[in-house]
Amino acid sequence: MKTITRSTCCYCGVGCGVLIESDGEKITGIQGDPAHPANYGRLCTKGMTLPLTVASKTNRALYPEIRINRDSERQRVDWDTALDTVALKFADIIRQHGPDAVAFYISGQLLTEDYYVFNKLAKGLIGTNNIDTNSRLCMSSAVSGYKLSLGADGPPTCYEDLELADCVLFAGSNMAWAHPVLYRRLEAAKATRADVKWIVIDPRRTDTAAMADLHLQIQPGTDVALFNGMLHHLIWEDLIDPQFVAEHTDGFAELKQLVRDYTPRMAAEICGITEADLMTAAEWFGRSQGALSLYCMGLNQSAHGTDKNLALINLHLATRQIGKPGAGPFSLTGQPNAMGGREVGGMATMLAAHRDITNADHRAEIARLWGIDTERLSPTPGLPAVEMFNAIRAGKIKALWIACTNPVHSMPDLNLIREALDTAEFVVVQEAFLNTDTVPYADVVLPAATWGEKSGTVTNSERRISRVRPAIQGPGEVRGDWWIANEVARRLEAQIHPARFSLFGFANEEQVFNEHRRLTEGKDLDITGLSYGVLESHGPQQWPMPIVEAYGETRGQARRYEDGVFATADGKARFNVTPYLPVAEPTNSRYPFHLLTGRLRDQWHGMSRTGRVPRLFAHTPEAALTMNPLDAERRGLKAGELVKVSSKRGGLILPLGLSDEVTTGSVFAAMHWNGQFLNSGGINESTIGAVDRKSFQPELKHAAVRVERA
Ligand code: SF4
């Protein structure tokens, strides 16, 4: 019998609603959900092919597996043996070396309920904040940017603004490929309104840039100089809103002092663009009724990612392009649930519901809500991703539990990551797929359910919480991620903190969600008015949605800060002084090329899902290093021949592709290709682990490399 299950796409932060068709055993089809406000029935090629990702058991992790020692193969075991082994080993290491000798590296692909249990396990039971996630590689600079300027994490905007903006500024985002369904909404809006201007800031001429009214093809990493130059011009042309600045912000005088030096000519020279183009961009932005900036990894994955975010938000605050329809800074979430993970505090530098680890009152609140002694919660922030792997390499962290992510492909400077996992005493990998680059390092494999098989919630880029529902039962003995974490937690609790009442008495994911929403009461992301029942009856909802609103007309808040009151203590937004600083690793005579990295249209992350779908290779069949034809000619290189691209840290061999989408002096490689397809871990063999000192996000978008005939 055909069944339709309403759920959500698991790929990107657009968070499209889907209708899954199944026959009880297999998923037989998929459609976009016409009722979902993210996509109104549209899906991109990745979403359309989701059923094919779960059609086969090949390379699925089906059963728990353990290896006795590093020289032996992993063997199948039953769940109790696997769960007991993990709990006992963690307990042993915690007793010997303390709570900070263990760590968790989890994922923006996890559902909010999964994230919640992992976070409570690390912080509430073990007492370590060493829990970080691949969201550190994705959105952490956007988080720092929002907190330092607006006072709280989360975008002030919503998807309706896509249709309402008359100036759309894309910064470091190839939205046509990375967030295709939202891009189609923008295209449709532009087609009906002649007054809409698109500005694209990108060192590459991407498909998005090709459609722009103005493409600012800046030198890599010079975004802050550009934004400072634009602000200089806005001030000069009297296009700022002095009343808003005076009444609703703080710190403008100091910023004005800084940008006095960033004349359009000087900024344009740094960026490698014309002064006229910079001034045009500033005027379109400043004179529009609604200026919306859409930004992504091009700003975030940088050693100065927070400053890039802040310099852009400075423009919005100075011109009052915020808190009104069609305007505001809008970070496009990379992963499907990077936002949900932050909501439950599932990172090394935060506590649940946007609370801070270093704030004693916040720790006391969480301790009270969890029913534990405040002292159980460590006041010291944990180690963010890059530092976490460095600490494993140094022998300080002995045990690592990796869930739903593939660091041996996605982290920068892969040689160091492999060294770290070789050094670790105990590695647990919780995964749905066995052919990732990280699984060979696992002492224990815990088989996880994946899309179409699991249940919970996710939050998309516009703060909208949607249900993820299972259409079929997963194969073999796979289990939901929250269940696995919960079962280990109960066993570990018996070892290290036996109590009359378990912190992990959850019987299902709804109970986990209910505890999570209780923790949000009174906070900026209050969702006490939201429940699985409300999601069932009213569909996906945006936070905040406090209980008072749940039974009235309001269904969650679409746009934030419309009253000009920000989430800071005094209600005023902050301007931040953002001097331009160059990339972490400038080019030189030995490494003369800027290596740029990015996405392909039809692939996702390390391809553990999309790599299972042959038709998704039609758009880009194989890996390549893209070089400008003039650079190739100078070096006597030809399209299709194999070249070695290498940095100080490592390299890989790729076929050469020629295109003027990159300027001379730059080369581009997609991030997806990995050990399944290459004799290396992919382009992160060459990238650099330099991080932004405020967000700890690494500079995955740029490294200095050389290119030689292989
Ligand atoms: Fe899925 Fe993103 Fe495509 Fe929507 S745009 S179908 S969420 S991959």
UniProtKB/TrEMBL annotation:
Keyword Iron in annotation: yes
Sorted alphabetically, the Gene Ontology BP terms of this entry are: cellular respiration; nitrate assimilation
Give the keywords, sorted. 4Fe-4S, Iron, Iron-sulfur, Metal-binding, Molybdenum, Nitrate assimilation, Oxidoreductase
Lineage: superkingdom: Bacteria
Required co-factor?
[4Fe-4S] cluster; Mo-bis(molybdopterin guanine dinucleotide)
Which Gene Ontology CC terms are recorded?
membrane; oxidoreductase complex
E.C. numbers: 1.7.99.4
Where the record annotates domain 4Fe-4S Mo/W bis-MGD-type, the positions are 2-58
Q: Annotated Gene Ontology MF terms?
A: 4 iron, 4 sulfur cluster binding; metal ion binding; molybdopterin cofactor binding; oxidoreductase activity
Family from the record? Belongs to the prokaryotic molybdopterin-containing oxidoreductase family. NasA/NapA/NarB subfamily.
Name of this chain's protein = Assimilatory nitrate reductase catalytic subunit
What species was this sequence derived from?
A: Silvimonas terrae
Q: What is the lineage of its organism?
A: Bacteria, Pseudomonadati, Pseudomonadota, Betaproteobacteria, Neisseriales
Q: Which residues of the full protein are shown?
A: 1 to 710 of 899
